Amino acid sequence: MGRLAEEVRGWLTTRPYVLEALRIGIANVSAVARIAADDLRTPEVAALRAALRRYAPSIQAPYVTETVRASLMASRIQTRSKVAIITVPQGADVLRRLADPVRQSLSAGMLCRIIQGTQAIVVNVDEDAVPLFTRHLGSSQLIAVRRNLAELAVTGPPDMADTRGLLSLLSGVLSANGFNIAQATVSYSDVIFLLPSADIGKASHLLGGLLEDVSASPRRFRRERKSRPAVRHP
């Protein structure tokens, strides 16, 4: 039961409309259990139904808003492989040294994204551009280089950055399913995650499934409720 309960919790994290319906008590738990059984490819419908009933009281409210749902329905997934993070200290001299490699990277059509923190600057670049940057930086101006990363971007309408709760939902889905997020950035029409390269395929499939399910949820669950009579349990 422990394994199955963990699987159904992971399944629910990608279906915010089901979580919200369970939270407010309008979900047909038997119907949800049957759909979960199909998706998880298990015949243990009764065990899934029991797990859903135990889990429902712990769901925080609200799980997703209509604004978040609208942003997701208008979004798409994009990925980029072979990404590295270069971390350098803050300082005017460092920024001057970064100017040439940044210009060359952008001219070559390569990734180059600069993020200033409180104590350091991180530069997201294509792995092939790492030597270009390190040549322009002295040993005292290079804190770390992290390779073997990939970029996963959820790209949507221009107001994505102002959509309250969107980053929390997307990062929560990834974290709940065991993915280690190296970096998360929100800007204009993008929510961008950097993940280990080995995880990018599964993470992309997971968030892609979330977008599909959010779009299909009203139609799918209306169809399920019409095709099967509601069953009430004590």
CATH architecture of the largest domain: 2-Layer Sandwich
Spatial extent as radius of gyration:
22 Å
Total number of strands: 6
What is the helical fraction, as a range of percent? 40-55%
> What separation lies between the terminal Cα atoms?
21 Å
Class derived from helix and strand content: alpha+beta
The 3D shape can be described as elongated
Contiguous runs where pLDDT drops below 50 for at least 5 residues: 219-234
Supply the CATH class of the largest domain.
Alpha Beta
The CATH topology name of the largest domain reads: VC0802-like
Domain count: the total is: 2
The fraction of residues assigned to DSSP E strands is 15-25%
The count of helical stretches stands at: 9
CATH superfamily of the largest domain: VC0802-like
- How would you write the strand order of the largest sheet? 2-3-1-4-6-5
Give average pLDDT, whole number: 86
